[in-house]
């Protein structure tokens, strides 16, 4: 692990230990049992809401370690509603508090604001089975597993735990070695992160390089650095099924006058403008 990722994981271990004391598994199970079944994350990614054959996973993100504060005027309810109305097939919600200024409660807000019709991915650094139960208990439909942060045994354990709750699992990789590890644990949804988590540098060609090594039948998601219509067109040409877009959408919504929902929706239509139905 690189410096940034190492620091995040060390912090996450402390947070998980504290969370287990604050909200024990018994309490989470009680919450989980009161919820309806999770939405089908994989099926949503196979059905883009635009004519272009790339589904949009729209991300709700206030800040990041590399860019600092991204969205000063941050309203999860309004953003999630706008994403749903503008054609997002799924939403990614950052729940890491220290590094991304996220919160678990944002999952519930996003789910309610979208009418419970759009699958929600919990975007966090998941290292413990407790976090999987936590994700389900707060209404997530899918979780992210980052191969750079996990050994194969832990990744397998977490994936199986998620599947036992009916959650989708997006397994994230950045290079060929991580891709092979993801395939070896039976990942069905492969996320290619164009951002190197060791340096936080971004290269969209990372997706183009790795896609040919992914067997047919897998769902491929490209993550990070996607900001232009040309990027979406390129991803469609490489065979990607979905694009996770966060920072460019958040910045489009953040204006000097505050949160601009119209600008946010305009940005989404701009990304997909050449092939909308």
How does this model look, in words?
This is Indole-3-glycerol phosphate synthase. Its EC number is 4.1.1.48. InterPro entries: Aldolase_TIM, Indole-3-glycerol_P_synth, Indole-3-glycerol_P_synth_dom, Indole-3-GlycerolPSynthase_CS, RibuloseP-bd_barrel. Keywords: Amino-acid biosynthesis, Aromatic amino acid biosynthesis, Decarboxylase, Lyase, Tryptophan biosynthesis. One of its GO terms (molecular function) is phosphoribosylanthranilate isomerase activity. The chain is α/β, with parallel strands linked by helices. The protein has one domain (3-275): TIM Barrel (Alpha-Beta Barrel). It has twelve helices and twelve strands. It has helices at residues 3-22, 25-33, 41-45, 76-86, 105-113, 129-137, 152-164, 176-184, 205-210, 229-238, 247-253, 261-271; strands at 55-60, 63-64, 68-69, 90-94, 120-123, 142-146, 168-173, 189-193, 219-223, 242-245, 254-255, 258-259. The strands form three sheets. Strands 1-4-5-6-7-8-9-10 form an eight-stranded parallel beta barrel, surrounded by six helices. Strands 2-3 form a two-stranded antiparallel ribbon. Helix 4 runs parallel beside helix 12, helix 6 (129-137) runs parallel beside helix 7 and helix 11 runs antiparallel to helix 12 (261-271). The chain is globular. The chain starts with a helix and ends in a 6-residue tail after the last helix. The model has no long low-confidence stretch (mean pLDDT 92).
């Amino acid at each position: 692990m690189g410096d940034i990722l190492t620091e995040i994981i060390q912090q996450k271990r402390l947070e998980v230990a504290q969370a287990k004391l604050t909200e024990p598994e018994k309490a989470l199970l009680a919450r989980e049992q009161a919820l309806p079944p999770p939405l089908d994350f994989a099926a949503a990614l196979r059905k883009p809401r635009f004519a272009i054959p790339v589904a949009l996973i729209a991300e709700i993100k206030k800040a990041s370690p590399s860019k600092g504060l991204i969205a000063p005027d941050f309203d999860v309810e309004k953003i999630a509603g706008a994403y749903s109305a503008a054609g997002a097939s799924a939403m990614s919600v950052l729940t890491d508090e220290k590094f991304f200024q996220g919160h678990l409660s944002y999952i519930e807000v996003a789910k309610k604001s979208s009418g419970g019709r759009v699958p929600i991915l919990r975007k966090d650094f998941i290292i413990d089975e407790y976090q999987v139960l936590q994700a389900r208990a707060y209404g997530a439909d899918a979780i992210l597993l980052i191969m750079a942060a996990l050994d194969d045994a832990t990744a397998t354990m977490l994936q199986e735990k998620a599947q036992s709750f009916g959650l989708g699992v997006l397994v994230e990789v950045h290079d060929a070695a991580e891709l092979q590890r993801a395939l070896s644990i039976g990942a069905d949804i492969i996320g290619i992160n164009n951002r190197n988590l060791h340096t936080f540098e971004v290269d969209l060609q990372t997706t183009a390089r790795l896609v040919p090594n992914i067997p047919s039948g897998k769902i491929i998601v490209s993550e990070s650095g996607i900001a232009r219509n040309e990027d979406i067109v390129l991803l469609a040409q490489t065979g990607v099924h979905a694009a996770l877009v966060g920072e460019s959408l958040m910045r489009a919504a953040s204006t000097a006058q505050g949160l601009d929902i119209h600008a946010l929706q305009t940005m989404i239509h701009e990304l997909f403008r050449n092939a909308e139905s």
